[in-house]
Amino acid sequence: MPHKANIRFLSLAISTATVLLLGGSREANGQATSGQLPGNVHYLHSGDLPPGFIGGARLQRRGAVQGYYQPVRLSGPEGVRFSLADGTTFPPTEAGALHAGLLIGAVYRIRITDIADSPGLEIYPTVEVIDRTYPPPGEALRFPIPINIDRLDLLDASQGRMVTRVIYLEDSEQALPLAETIDSARTLEISSREDPLKVADRLGRPVAIVRIGSLLPPAEPSLLPQFFFGSPPWLTMTPIQKQQEPANALPVGESKFNFRQQR
């Protein structure tokens, strides 16, 4: 018997000394903070592990993840350009969202340019896909992992701060009945004392980690392979849009959240 897809994405954001959930603190909403974990839970991984460690560990477990190109959609403020590293260079791209297929467990270097009010500024975040989605057959392009990098992320990075975003699939039993578009990510702000990966794990299934900082490409050519994490391959993907749906509409029952952490 066929089942209707119900994929709902969320994203965590951590901001120093604040814990916000849909406009209010967890304490104000009568919810326990993510630091209050059950006594029988033991986490093997944390969000501050080096890029590639968590995704690599996922490849050692069961599941159809080896060699799988997970559809991802990168978006940001109006006018910015996203470019995925190709070898040790970044090919030119058009402004707007970037759709690509990324390997599970690999780490990709991204370049963000044409940032409003910041001429010449370039930001080089990394994207690590740590798990895949399981959409209905033939509909993978309708359910990319949405990664939205907002203006505050870019501002923090330009000022030398480190921002960590963890995107996760929401637990359907905890889902909020709120309508969303693919560009309206809700961001959950959590304290820098908390681990975004653990918080995301409690609320759903983490699928990607985005690290946004001020690191620039090294001038020394011998260091470029390390900066680009070996330049893993990726695929260009064209999004599928149904005529009856608005261009930015999520499929029925789908939304996304955002965890953001600033250091």
Brief description of this entry?
With 263 residues, the protein is mainly beta. Helix content is 10%, strand content 28%. It has one domain.
Pattern of helices and strands: EEEHEEEEEEHEEHEHEE
Structural class: mainly beta
| Count of alpha and pi helical runs | 4
The quaternary state of the protein chains shown equals single chain
Count of distinct strands: 14
How much strand? 25-35%
The number of domains is 1
Low-confidence stretches: 1-8, 12-42, 243-247, 249-257
Over the alpha carbons, how many angstroms does the gyration radius reach?
Answer: 18 Å
Largest sheet: 8 strands, mixed
Helix content: 10-25%
Shape: globular
Intertermini distance: 48 Å
Summed over residues and divided by their number, the pLDDT gives a mean of 75
Describe, in plain words, how this protein is organized in 3D:
The chain has 4 helices and 14 strands. It has helices spanning 53-59, 151-158, 196-203, 224-227; strands at 9-14, 20-21, 24-25, 69-75, 81-84, 98-103, 107-113, 126-129, 145-148, 163-170, 186-190, 204-212, 234-236, 257-262. 10% of the residues lie in helices and 28% in strands. It has 263 residues and is mostly beta strands. The protein has one domain.
